[in-house]
Automatic annotation (TrEMBL):
Protein name: Histidine kinase
GO molecular function: phosphorelay sensor kinase activity
SUPFAM superfamilies, alphabetized: ATPase domain of HSP90 chaperone/DNA topoisomerase II/histidine kinase
Domain Signal transduction histidine kinase internal region: 156-233
Gene Ontology cellular component list: membrane
Residue spans crossing the bilayer: 12-32, 38-58, 70-87, 117-136
Organism: Mucilaginibacter rubeus
Keyword terms, alphabetized: Kinase, Membrane, Transferase, Transmembrane, Transmembrane helix
Highest taxon listed in the record's lineage: Bacteria
Length: 349
C-alpha cells in the first residue's frame, strides 16, 4: 500500500506543476507581444497560489481538515481565498495591467467579477491538489504506524514462543540424563558435557532472529546423540546431511519440535522402530524431512506438551516465513509411519 500511495502522489504533483507552467506560458501562444508588466503579474499571481498551497498543506489541512475541525477549516479557506482575490486585484492595479491591455486590445473592457471568479476557481483547484497530497501523506503515516505496531507484535509473539520452546527442551533433556545417572554414569557425564554445548546454543543463538544452518545442524546432531543414550540399540536412527550444504540463515531451533515428536512417538520397546532425519538444499529450497515409526503414547499430559511444541513451531513458521514455507504432515495408520516434510524458500530470506 505504501508504494501505491507514493505512486499516486507523484502524478498529482506532476500534473499540478505541468498545469502551472502551461498557465504561466499560455499567453505566448497569442499573436501579440504582451507587456512586461503582464509577465510580472503572471509570476506574482502564481507565487500567490504557491503560498496558498503551502499554507494549506503545512497548516490548514493537517491541523484542521484531517482532525475534523471542518468549521474552522472552511472559515480559514474562505479568508485565504479573499486575501488571494484582494492580492490579485492589488497586483492588477499596481502594475496598471488594465491600461496596458487597453492599448493592445480594442475594445478592452475590464471584467473584475470574472477576474475574481477565476481567482476563486484557481484557489479551489490549488486547495484540491494540496488536500490530495495531505491525505496521501496521512495515509502513509497511518500505514507506517500499523506496520511498526505489527512488527512489534510479531517480535513479542516470537519471543513468547521461543520462551516456551527453550525450557521445554531443557527439562526434557535433563530428564533423559537423569535416567542415565543410575544405569550408566559415564554416559550421563558425557551427556552433560554435550548438553552444556547445546545450552550455549540455546542461550546465545536463540536471542537472534536467525542462525546459520551449520550451527542448527550441529545442534540437531548433539540432540540426536543425547537421545541415542536412552534408547535401545535396536532402534534405527539416522541423520543425513549432504557433504556440501549451503550455509544459509534459518530460525534457531526451528526443526527441534519435529525431531522431539519423533523420539516421543517413534520408539517402542517391543516392536522394530526407526527415526530417519534428512536435511537437503537445492534450487533455493531447504527441505527438512522426518520419517519415523509411530506408537501412540498413553500419557496424555506428554502428548499435550509435544502438541504445544508443534503448534508453536507452526505459528513461528507463519510469522517468520509467511508464504515462503510448506509443511506436510502424514500420519499413516496402515503402516504406522509418521512423515513430516518442511520446505523453506531460502531465496526469499
Amino acid at each position: 500500500m505504501f508504494v501505491k500511495l507514493r505512486k499516486a502522489v507523484f502524478p498529482v504533483h506532476l500534473f499540478a506543476a505541468t498545469a502551472l507552467i502551461i498557465w504561466i506560458l499560455f499567453p505566448l501562444t497569442w499573436p501579440v507581444n504582451m507587456p512586461s508588466s503582464y509577465w510580472i503579474k503572471q509570476v506574482a499571481e502564481n507565487l500567490g497560489y504557491a503560498v496558498v498551497y503551502i499554507i494549506n498543506t503545512a497548516v490548514l489541512s493537517p491541523k484542521l481538515l484531517t482532525k475534523r475541525r471542518l468549521g474552522f477549516y472552511i472559515i480559514s479557506v474562505i479568508a485565504l481565498i479573499i486575501l488571494m482575490v484582494k492580492y490579485n486585484g492589488w497586483m492588477q492595479d499596481s502594475l496598471h495591467i488594465d491600461a496596458a491591455m487597453a492599448k493592445m486590445f480594442h475594445p478592452y473592457v475590464p471584467d473584475h467579477h470574472m477576474r475574481s471568479a477565476w481567482t476563486i476557481l484557481m484557489c479551489l483547484i490549488v486547495l484540491g491538489f494540496s488536500n490530495v497530497t495531505t491525505v496521501a501523506k496521512k495515509l502513509q503515516s497511518h500505514e507506517l504506524a500499523i506496520q511498526v505496531s505489527e512488527k512489534e507484535r510479531i517480535s513479542a509473539e516470537l519471543s513468547f514462543l521461543k520462551a516456551q520452546i527453550n525450557p521445554h527442551f531443557f527439562f526434557n533433556t535433563l530428564h533423559t540424563i537423569y535416567a542415565l545417572t543410575d544405569t550408566d554414569p559415564a554416559s550421563a557425564k558425557e551427556s552433560l558435557y554435550t548438553l552444556s554445548h547445546m545450552m550455549r546454543y540455546v542461550i546465545y543463538e536463540t536471542k537472534q532472529d536467525v542462525t546459520t544452518l551449520k550451527k542448527e545442524v550441529k545442534f540437531i546432531e548433539d540432540y540426536i546423540s543425547l537421545m541415542r543414550t536412552r534408547i535401545d540399540s535396536s532402534v534405527e536412527v539416522s541423520f543425513t546431511v549432504p557433504d556440501k550444504l549451503r550455509d544459509i540463515n534459518v530460525a534457531p531451533m526451528l526443526f527441534l519440535p519435529f525431531i522431539e515428536n519423533a523420539f516421543k512417538h517413534g520408539i517402542s520397546a517391543r516392536q522394530a522402530s526407526y527415526i530417519f532425519v534428512n536435511i537437503s538444499e537445492a534450487g533455493g529450497t531447504l527441505k527438512f524431512m522426518v520419517r519415523n515409526s509411530i506408537y501412540k503414547n498413553t500419557n496424555k499430559e506428554l502428548d499435550e506438551e509435544y502438541g504445544i511444541g508443534i503448534a508453536n513451531t507452526k505459528r513461528r513458521l507463519d510469522l517468520l516465513y509467511p508464504g515462503k514455507y510448506n509443511l506436510v504432515v502424514n500420519d499413516d495408520a496402515n503402516t504406522n509411519e509418521y512423515l513430516t516434510i518442511l520446505t523453506l524458500n531460502t531465496n526469499a530470506n
